[in-house]
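Encode chain A's predicted structure.
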Amino acid sequence: MVDDIFSIGAEGVNVDDLVEQIRQTVRTKAEQGAYVDTRVARAEKTNLANLAGADEFLEFYLECLREAAPVDFSDFEIRERRRGLSFLLVPFKRLIWKLLKFYTYRLWSQQNETNALLVSAVEASDANCRERIKQLQSRIERLEKRVSADE
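Encoded structure for chain A:
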């Protein structure tokens, strides 16, 4: 299968059948409600194949970066898959979490600050480059007009 973005292929593999199986699995899971999360719908809506060009991709990427930068350090449910030991392990894990929570919160908050600064730096750099490109484009247009007027 050849697409505008990339191609998939391997010797002895029917790519069209593979793609159809993936699509059928996605349809089945969607019917079962596996993709009700709004982030999945948004990701599909802004699928990379649907993006028009590099500018649109960069804007989408920066928005995703902005959304992904903050680390979620809210409490979470502690579970145990091993049923026989869960009555011992879950309280033990909760105790460890309570003891270490202070340290992890400090690390996560520092990570959030670092991530926010990095996102700001990337956005500022992008804005700076875009402004510089606009200035250069207008300069080129002025020079082209001057050259065509001189001829």
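The helical segments are 15-31, 38-45, 54-68, 86-150.
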